[in-house]
Backbone:
């Protein structure tokens, strides 16, 4: 099974769709295909805990109950498809120190790119 690390925008859209506060637009075909693969157990979604915390903080400011969302996130794998919330551990930090920074990407996109490379065993 392949895995796919969601960036902040994809994660935000995914959570909005998954928890019923939005639906996908016509231009969201890429995330729609990813969700279909995830629901069919062909793809594991990975989200970085730092990006998840930023999204939850934003939702909390909008007075949404983030505790319910958080509980639901950790039960997604039991209900729908494999979903991993990944902390930035020692292995990830060590990899970042060895990795040559891509100055064309912002930090968020760069972290997601690094995680995707790790998931594909591209060092």
Residues:
């Amino acid at each position: 099974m392949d895995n796919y690390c969601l960036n902040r925008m994809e994660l935000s859209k995914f959570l909005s769709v998954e928890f019923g506060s939005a639906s996908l637009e016509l231009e969201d075909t890429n995330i729609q295909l990813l969700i279909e693969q995830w629901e069919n157990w062909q793809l594991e979604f990975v989200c970085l805990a730092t990006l998840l915390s930023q999204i939850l903080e934003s939702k909390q400011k909008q007075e949404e109950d983030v505790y319910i969302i958080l509980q639901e996130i950790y039960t997604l794998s039991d209900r729908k498809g494999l979903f991993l919330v990944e902390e930035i551990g020692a292995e990830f930090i060590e990899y970042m120190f060895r990795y040559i920074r891509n100055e064309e990407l912002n930090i968020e996109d760069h972290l997601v790119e690094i995680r995707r490379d790790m998931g594909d065993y591209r060092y």
